[in-house]
Amino acid sequence: MNDFSAEAMGLVIREYRQAQKPSMTQEELAERADYGKGGAVSISRIERGLVSPGEHRLAALALALRLTPAQIKQEAEDRTRSLARQRGQRPVKLRDQVAETKRRHAEITEKTAQRSKITQEHGEAFNRVHDVVRDEFFMGFVELAESISGAPEPEKPSEEEAESTGELPTAIRVEAMSAGIANAIRGAAAGGAAGAAVGGAAAYGAFTAAAMFGTASTGATISTLAGAAATNATLALLGGGTLAAGGAGMAGGVLLLTGMVAAPAAALAAAGFYVLRQRRNKKEEERLRAEVEAAEAALDQSQQGFDVMIDVLDRATVIMEYVEVHGTHALEKWKASLPPEPRDWESLGHEGRERYKEFLTVAGCFLAASIINVPALLTAEPDALREMDKAVDETLRYADKTIKSIV
């Protein structure tokens, strides 16, 4: 993973932005790096060291600043070492030590609060569009699909495709999820309990469970084949616990399930009494400094996971927004082209049947982007985080490319 701190990366980007001729504003950098609406806020947070850009964002920022990602990374690594040397030089006088520790305490308190705010903003943005797509596209497609009798049983991943590693390529995972959704639709159309009539989050949860916990041709559960990026806990969080469903939402789940905020907050609370004192002796100062350093370490240890989490939420939200606009429009056009009920598979015609299969694929991609285990990114060790980041990146890239090729 990265060998630079978020603070160092922010300083480097800010300095290069300001060094442009003429000096570039945060708004201008955000626009040139394709950050979209509210991008200046994202640039501000990067420059303040609250979050580091992911690989694809860093590439866009480097291009806007007329640099390469490698150049920015190298300078950030050099600056990280420089900052570490500076902080290793403690003031001699107790009065100056007290002032420095108070300053560091205030910085960590602010950073902790900002992380919580950023997480909530990104989580709520994801939850909002996820719930809209769930109700308008996913369940809208399910309702139409249930009205079509005689739809063939979907093909599942073959033995050859699913053997050996236990970690399926993204395309096969999506194929398996689409097959699970189709089988749930067939069961509902035949009188099963899961159906659009159940309504909203409950029905979505039933179809999601069918896709996640159905079996592939090998007999292995699809949830197992999906690997580290998909878990039952995240399914419950997204399927039934989002804001629109009355739950705490992803933001609440992230904050509750990880020590991202709790660890430094506990350390700072323990130190708070000494910060408020006007005068401290050397022993009290040493104690406070140790607590502050523990809080700094807790934040630093979770920084890379936090960066990945925010990047994933941002990219997944963009995918959902595309489905919200283009997927629902395409679904309405397909609905208008369908023959009147009662309708069967053959009555759809070749084009209608192909469109049915394409919408199943979009539904599978939507599901794959929805069940990424975001909380696990924060608590993963560096090696595991690297592997998870790679798997999630492949999933999001595949979902984005596939959905756009269809709708």
Describe this structure in words.
The structure is a single chain. This protein has about 400 residues and is mostly helical. The chain contains 17 helices and two strands. The chain has helices spanning about 5-20, 25-30, 40-45, 55-65, 70-85, 95-145, 160, 170-190, 200-215, 220-225, 230-240, 250-255, 260-275, 280-335, 350-370, 375-380, 380-405; strands spanning about 150, 345. The protein has a two-stranded parallel sheet with strand order 1-2. It starts with 5 loop residues before the first helix and ends with a helix.
The order of strands across the largest sheet is 1-2
Q: Based on CA inertia axes, which overall geometry fits? A: elongated
**Helix percentage range:** over 70%
Q: What is the chain-wise order of helices and strands? A: HHHHHHEHHHHHHHHEHHH
Uncertain parts: 162-167, 193-198, 214-260
Strand content: under 5%
Gap between N and C termini: 35 Å
Query: How many domains would you count in the coordinates?
Result: 2
The quaternary organization reads as single chain
In total, how many beta strands?
2
Radius of gyration: 25 Å
Indicate the structural class: mainly alpha
Largest sheet: 2 strands, parallel
Q: How many H/I helices?
A: 17
Q: Round the mean pLDDT to the nearest integer and report it.
A: 77
Structural descriptors:
about 400 residues; two-stranded parallel ribbon; elongated; mainly alpha; 17 helices; 2 domains; 434 Repressor (Amino-terminal Domain); 2 strands
